[in-house]
């Protein structure tokens, strides 16, 4: 099943060509990402839930990867009519990152609760980290990105080697850098912590204090989470979301933070990439070979492109 009509996909292709200005054509550039102004793709949303189906609603962060010439999307779908309620993993592919076709045998994984997913490819295998029930993180692996095997929960320790306090470890982000694995996670959306591991078996906090906290700005004064890290040149760019709303329903916003060592982070002073009132979160940055793209998710997938001057 595709989520866009052919004429809408054609319009989107024209839109992409129109926005591909020379400043973006040179390839990935951290400065370009940090300074970009974003405008919505003409056919948003590019992916959304299907009323009455198992994926009637789309939840939290999904993951988009450009794997060769194919765009791949892993997402969490659910239906509030299901008893018991279960978050399930779906899969879709695209030739352009705009028009998506759901896998014919979705959901591809529903053995255990799986949401807020992140995928990377390492030595030919796909590695996923995700939230399970009660925001407990777990890891899965796959040879093809479709058939997944659950490896188990993540063993996260304090600097002294003792287990971290019981409770949620949500929105996990994996990164491999200089032969070391990094795991970023949030606890109650009250901060982002980082742990490392040589082999992804036991994770040890780099510091027992968060490397990013809410505030001081109003737009993320209450809760934050990290969705993605992109390594560009000598800098790491984190795609964050946060909220300053005192009560539900909250307005979440997407913004960026930067670091040179994965330990000391600074939020960009420019603040939210999109208006807070639009409530766009769970963001991902991808380069399509010509320009950067920003995707936001929860409860639909929207595409944002750099605005032409």
Structure overview:
The chain is mainly beta and 309 residues long. Strands 2, 3, 4, 5 and 6 form a 5-stranded antiparallel sheet that branches. Strands 11-15-14-13-12 form a 5-stranded mixed sheet, with no helix packed on it. The longest helix has 14 residues, at 6-19. It has 3 helices and 22 strands. Strand 12 and strand 13 form a beta hairpin. The radius of gyration is 19 Å and the shape is globular. It has one domain: Glycosyl hydrolase domain, family 43 (Tachylectin-2, Chain A, 5 Propeller), CATH 2.115.10. Helices cover 8% and strands 42% of the residues. Mean pLDDT is 91; it is low at 1-27.
Strand content: 35-45%
Query: In the CATH hierarchy, what is the superfamily?
Result: Glycosyl hydrolase domain, family 43
CATH topology: Tachylectin-2, Chain A
> Would you identify the regions where 5 or more consecutive residues have pLDDT less than 50?
1-27
CATH class: Mainly Beta
Number of strands: 22
Write down the overall geometry.
globular
Helix content: under 10%
Largest sheet: 5 strands, antiparallel
Structural class: mainly beta
* H/I helix tally: 3
Report the C-alpha radius of gyration, rounded: 19 Å
Order of helices and strands: HHHEEEEEEEEEEEEEEEEEEEEEE
